[in-house]
Design goal:
Elements (H helix, E strand, L loop, with lengths): L2 H43 L9 E2 H8 L3 H10 L3 E5 L10 E5 L6
Antiparallel strand pairs: 1-3, 2-3
Length: 106
């Protein structure tokens, strides 16, 4: 076996290993996104008694320990969560409220 053949075998092994690791990393990334979406849905669905109404994103950031970007990403991917913006005074930013849709669970 020549040096060139050994290099080809090593390159093929490295290529296969890279593809397997990339697939595993993508799977872990998707699993993490799924878990965050489920945490948000469960928190909105089974919240504390008396707090099952719409909740602002800032409240959910504090409760779930996720960033507002992660919460909004999970909310936009979920079919069970509705988003609504509040009316604000002129010049003030509106607040986005998230609510669990009961009819989507059937």
């Amino acid at each position: 076996m020549t040096y060139l053949e050994m290099l080809e075998i090593g390159a093929n092994i490295a290529s296969i290993t890279t593809a397997l690791l990339a697939g595993a990393a993508y799977g872990l990334y998707q699993w993490d996104k799924y878990q965050k979406r489920m945490r948000l849905e469960n928190h909105l669905k089974h919240g504390e008694p008396g707090t099952r109404g719409p909740r602002p994103v800032a409240y959910l950031v504090a409760e779930l320990g996720m960033t507002d970007t992660e919460i909004m990403d999970a909310a936009f991917r979920s079919k069970c969560i509705t988003r609504q913006a509040t009316q604000s005074m002129l010049g003030a930013p509106s607040i986005i409220l998230l609510r669990y849709k009961e009819e989507a669970s059937n």
